[in-house]
Amino acid sequence: MPAVTAYAHTNIALVKYWGKRPGAVAGLNLPAVGSISLTLDRFGTETTVEPIDADDGAADSFTLDGVEVSAAEAAKVSVFLDRLRRLTGDTRKARVTSRNDVPTAAGLASSASAFAALALAASRAWGVTLDDKALSRLARQGSGSAARSIFGGFVLLHRGELDTGDDCFAEALPSSLDVRLVVVRCGEGKKETGSTDGMELTSQTSPYFAPWVETHPKDLVDARDALAAADLPKLGEVMEHSTLKMHATTLAARPGFFYFQPTTIAVLQEVRRLRAHGIGCWATMDAGPHVKVLCAPADAPAVTDAVSAVVGVRGVDVAAPGPAARVLS
Ligand code: 2P0
After folding, report:
1. Ligand 1 pocket check for 148: Cβ under 6 Å
2. Does this model's pTM top 0.90?
3. Which residue has the CA at smallest separation from atom 9 of ligand 1?
4. CATH of domain 180-319
């Protein structure tokens, strides 16, 4: 079977996923809460999967940006491919080659685009054509946020109720709202606490985790209402509330931890200053130091100028809503 290449764009959660469902089977990656995201036109992952006829004992190989990755990262890819090998009975190994347009593991959601691209390329390489819902479920098993990168634009990932995860998939949330997300890089390098470990520690130890889960459904409803009404201020307000609540849970974990750096806080203050001066813009932060600022397309230049002038900012990119994952060849 020939090699298949797929591309998936990264996505940023507006209403965050943080924490797994208690008691769920580990490999299923079932979230404690649903989430709403925006797929971006900037940043993503291109992945080629080539099944190989190899001798017994041969292993999958995984090259990221031209470098053979660590055994731990390669193992995550192999575990993912095992699902397709079980599904099809085709037990061949694969050569997997990825190229990231995202600073890897720096909080710009590289695992989202990575596992969405891998799910699409690998399923096709194994001769399986899955509908978007099934593809989203498959991508979720690589990384929760990857379920959302199968779709373009605004996306809802259902929390679901079933232990099997069959009802835990994403879908597009059509809206006439056009937005920009100004991505402000506030640090470099790999984060100290990866999101999988960070959400695990939080759910196990933070007294704020239960209220996070309890209050979350209303944020999803409010964000959906805002999208239906194309109401940017309402969407921005609930987005900022969701991210600050998520980060509050990490501060109260034991040991407590946080993803903010001094530049992160300086950019948050700048966003508040801009709002006080009548520019509609709102901030969100993930498991890293960067700030993403949501605003109307017409306000993106003013927001970009203002955040670029904040001391410590390493770079600014303006992203628009982006398309669904797709097969390139
Ligand atoms: C999100 N994040 O909704 C949240 C907000 C980070 C902060 O999903 O354990 O790599 O593989 O399911 O998807 C990042 O966590 O974690 C993430 P796993 P994932 O985008």
Report:
1. no
2. yes
3. 196
4. 3.30.70.890
